[in-house]
Amino acid sequence: MTQIAHDHHAPAHGHGHSHGHDAHGHDAHGHGAHGHDGHGHHDPHLAHHFDSLAQQFDSAKLGIWLFLATEVLFFGGLFVAYAILRMRFPEVFSFASHYLDTIMGGINTCVLIISSLTMALAVRYAQTDNRKGLITCLVLTFLGAVGFLVIKYFEYTHKFHDNLVWGPSFYVPPHSAEGDLEGAVLKTAPAPPGAAITVVNPAPWQVPDLARKPAVDASAVKAAAMGPSGVARANGTPAPAPAAEPAPDAKDQAHPGTHLEDASMPPNTHLFFAIYYAMTGLHGIHVVAGMGILAWLTWRAVRGDFSSKNFTAVDTGGLYWHIVDLIWIFLFPLFYLIH
Amino acid sequence: MTTVPLPTSGPIRDTLEARPDSDNYLTHTRGVLSWVFTLDHKRIGVMYMWAVLASFLLGGIFALLLRTELLTPGPTITADASVYNKWFTLHGAIMVFLVIIPSIPAALGNVILPIMLGAKDVAFPKLNLFSFYLWMSGAVLCIVSLAMGGFDTGWTFYTPYSTTTDTGGVIPVLTAVFLLGFSSIFTGLNFVVTVHKLRPPGMTWFRMPLFLWALYATAIIQVLATPVLGITLLLLIVERTINIGIFNPSMGGDPVLYQHFFWFYSHPAVYIMILPAMGIISEIIAINSHRSIFGYRFIAFSSIAIAMFSFIVWGHHMFTSGQSPLMNTLFSAISFSVAIPSAVKVFNWVATLYKGSVSLTTPMWYALAFIFLFTIGGLTGLHLATLSTDVHLHDTYFVVAHFHYVMMGSALIAMIGGLHHWWPKIFGRMYHEKLGTVACWIIFIGFNVTFFTQFMLGSQGMPRRYYDYQPEYQVYHVISTMGSYIMAFGFTLTAVSLFGSFFTGQRAPANPWGGRSLEWQCASPPPFDNFAKTPRVGDCYDFTDVHWDEKTGGYWVDESADTAKDGRPA
C-alpha cells in the first residue's frame, strides 16, 4: 500500500531530493518533461510519463480503487469462511459471541468512525491549502489508530488470560496453559482437585469420538447443519441440557473467566475464536500499515509537500484508511452483536 | 505488402533508422545499479524475462527427473518415493507460479504493453519495480524451501496433507507463493490503470492491438482473483503453525473449503496463463498473414468473456470432492460454455489465415503449433467438464495431459513464440531463423509424443502423481519419457538460436515482420523513452500501407497514406 501511495508522488518526492534510483531516470534525458531541469514549463509534481496532472491524478485514483478491490477480496475469503462456519455451527456463534466485550468493541467502532471523519477533513484541508488543519487531522487520525490498537490490546490480553483462544489450547483449563502449549495439551492432565472440568481426552480433535457428542437441547440451540460435530466437549461427558438461552449472565460477560465450566458450551466453540482472531488480527495488521501511511503523510505534510495542486497522496492514503474502517464496521456486528 | 523504399529523409526515417548502440534503453545508462534501481518498464520486463527463463530451466530439470524416474515401475533413479513426490511438486509449483503466470504478462507484457499502447511507461513505475522484487523474494524463498527439505504437497497444497506433512519447506513455499501472488496483483493493477489512463490520443479501445485486450483481461483476473489465493495461503500458514482448525475436519473445520478457496483463484489463474498467450497468437497470426485480423471485436470481447467465465467454473476441479449434485451440474454446464469464446478465437485465427499471404517465420510456426495444441487441450477439457467421464478420468494422467496441452502446449508455446516475435525488438538482434524453426518442430513433436501418450495412459486408469505403476503401463511411460527428452533437445536448440543472436545475430530492423502496431514503429531496441514524439495511432491491423524496404531489411509504415484516408495529420 505504501508503495502505491509513494508511487503516485515519485516526482514530488524526488524533486530536490534526488535518490540514487531516481537519478537513472532523470539525468540522462533532459527533454524537460519531468520538470527536474528547473525550466518550470512543467509542473514539478508531474511524472515524466504522464501528459497532465489530471491524467496523473486519475491514474492514482483508479489505482487505489483497484487496490481497495483487492483488499475487499482479500478479506472476502475470510468473510466466506466466517459465513460457512456460522452456517455449520450457529450455536457456537450465538454462544461464544457473549464472551466478546461489546462495550470495548463499541468504543473501538466509534474511535474508527471518528478517525475516518478526521481523515476526510485532512483531505479537505489539503485541498484548501490549510496546512495546519491538515497536520492536526492527520495526527488525530493517527491517534485514533493508536487508540484502536490499545483497546484491542486490552481485549486480546483479557481473552488470552481467560484462555479464549484458537485451537487446542482453548480446551486447556484456564491458567494451566502457561509454558509449553503443546506439552500442556498433549499430556493427560489429571483433574485438578475441585475442578468441575477435566481434560479426559488429551487431544480430542485428533480422534473425534462421535459417541461422546454431548446432548444438545434442540429447543435451545439450533443444531449444526451437517457433518460430524467434530470436537466433543472437553470433558467428554454429556452435558446437562441447557435450560434455555445459553447466554451467560452479566457477571460472566464482564469477567468471562472459566469458559470451560459453562455447561452450555457447544462443541467446536474454539472455531469462533479461530475466525475471530484471524479476521480481527488481519484487520489489526491493516491498522498498523495504516499508521505507517499516516506517519509518512504527516511527515510530508510537515515538510510542506501538499497543496491544493498536489494532494493525491493524502487522498489515496485516506481512501485506504476508510476501507480499514469499513472492514471493522462489518467485523463489529458479525462478532460482537450476535444474539 | 509491396517493396517501397523508405523515404530518404523525414520523421519516419529518423525514427526507424538504426540508432547508434549507445542510444537505446539497454545502453542508455550503464552499470549494475542502473538495472537494479531501474524504473524503465522495458528493463524491468527484461529482468523478469531472465528470471522466468532461469526458473523454466529449473522446472524443466525437475520434469526430466520425474519422467526419468517413471521409465520403469518401481525405483529407477531414486529408491525413495518421497523424493519423487518432491520432484513433481517442485516441477508443478515452479512452472505454475514462477514461470507460466509471470511469463507473458510480467516479462513480455512489461516490455511490450506500454510501447504497443504508445505510452512512455506503465502508470506506476515504482510499483512495477516493487512488484519485480516481490517476485524475486518469492523466487528466493522457493530456493530456501528447497534447502529446508523441500515439500511434497503437490502444487495445489491440499489440506489436510499440507498441514500435516513433515517436509520442512512448506511454510517457506506458502510464503513464497503469497509474495508471488502480490507481485502478480501489482503487475495487473499497473496494467489496468495503464490501459485505462495512458492511451495516447487516437488509441481508442477498439484500436488497441488484441495483445493489449488480452493483457487487459488478464490483468482484471490478476487483480480480482489473486487476493483470494493470498488469504487462503495465509490461512494455511496459520493452520500449519498455530493449528486454528478452519480447514481441519477433526476440529470442525472443512478441508473442502480450502479446495473452494484454492480453485476460486487457481481456475482463473489458468486463464491468467492462457489469455495473454491468445493475445500473442492474435498478433503473430495477423502480422504473418499480412492480412487484417478476422473478427477483431469478437476476439477482443471473447477475451473479456473468458475472464468473466473464469470466475464461475472453479467447481469443475472438485466434482469428486462431495459437492452437491446441483453444484456439479451447474459447474459442468458453465465449464462447457467457456468453449464458446475459446472457439470464437480459434475460428477467427483460422479465418485470418485463409487467403492470407502467410510468412512461415519461426513465431508463425509456434502460432500454428499453438492452434493445434490448444484445440486438443480445449476439446479434452470438455471430457473433463462432463460429469460422468470426469469421475473416471479425475486424477489420472488424462488430466495431466489435458492441462499440459493447455498450460504448456498453449501458454508456454505462445510465450516462446512471442519471445521470437519480439526478440528483435527487445534486443535488436535477429535470432537464427532456420534453427528456430527446426527447434519449434522438434518441440512440437516431442510435446505430442510426451503428452498425447498420457491421454491414453490416463484413460486406461493410470493415476497421476504415482511413483510406482503396473507393468502394463510401462510402454506408455517409456514413450512419454522419450518425448520429454526430445522436447528438452528442442528447447536447447531454441536457447542456442535465441542466445546465439547476441554473438552472431544480425542487427534487427525496426520492423522485421511487417507489423502495424506501435512497437514496430520505434527503433529496435527502443530508445529510453519509447517515442521521440507521440506516435500517430492508425488501424493496427491495416497492412495495406506497410512496405518492404530492401535497404534496411525491414518494413515501414507509410503514415501519409493513412492521413489521406482519415484526414488526421501524420
Give the helices and strands, then pairings:
The complex is a heterodimer of chains A (339) and B (570).
Chain A: H1 2-8, H2 10-14, H3 20-27, H4 53-88, H5 90-96, H6 102-127, H7 131-161, H8 181-186, H9 250-254, H10 269-303, H11 312-336
Helix pairs in contact in A: 1-11, 4-5, 4-10, 4-11, 5-10, 6-7, 6-11, 7-10, 10-11
Chain B: E1 2-3, H1 11-16, H2 32-36, H3 41-69, H4 81-117, H5 125-147, H6 161-164, H7 170-197, H8 210-242, H9 255-289, H10 296-310, H11 325-337, H12 339-353, H13 362-385, H14 387-393, H15 397-427, H16 433-459, H17 474-499, H18 501-504, E2 546-549, E3 554-557, H19 559-566
Parallel strand pairs in B: 1-2
Antiparallel strand pairs in B: 2-3
Helix pairs in contact in B: 3-4, 3-5, 3-17, 4-7, 4-8, 4-9, 4-15, 5-7, 7-8, 8-9, 8-10, 9-10, 9-12, 9-13, 9-15, 10-12, 12-13, 13-15, 13-16, 15-16, 16-17
Give an overview of the whole structure.
The complex is a heterodimer of chains A (339) and B (570). With 339 residues, chain A is an all-alpha fold. Chain A has 11 helices and no strands. Chain B is 65% helix and 2% strand. Chain B has helices spanning 11-16, 32-36, 41-69, 81-117, 125-147, 161-164, 170-197, 210-242, 255-289, 296-310, 325-337, 339-353, 362-385, 387-393, 397-427, 433-459, 474-499, 501-504, 559-566, and strands spanning 2-3, 546-549, 554-557. In chain B, a hairpin with a 4-residue loop joins strand 2 (546-549) and strand 3. Classes of the chains: A mainly alpha (339), B mainly alpha (570). At the A-B interface, helix 1, helix 3, helix 4 and helix 10 of A face helix 5, helix 7 and helix 8 of B.
Key terms for this structure?
heterodimer; A: about 350 residues; mainly alpha; 11 helices; about 55% helix; about 0% strand; elongated; disordered N terminus; B: about 575 residues; Cytochrome C Oxidase, Chain A; three-stranded mixed sheet; 19 helices; 3 strands
